[in-house]
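The pair is set out directly below:
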Amino acid sequence: MCLAIPAQVVELQEQGMARVRVGESQTYLTASMLLLPEPPKVGDYVIVHAGFALHSLTPEQAQESLAALREVAEAIEGQKPLF
């Protein structure tokens, strides 16, 4: 199973690449934006998988996805039940 993570565009780079911040972490990646129908702007959210932005998200969608991922992580770590 693969997992695509919401990320925020923090810097646009050459050749359709962008530096993105993964979730709310201090992890930054460089990802291709070439699969998106429209180029993102700095501050936009995208779903990133395997080095490619797969689609854009609204800030609300990104926060909902991140909250769901946090719940799953907490459940796996035994801190909180999933149901």
Q: What stands out?
A: The longest helix spans residues 59-76. Helices lie at 59-76.
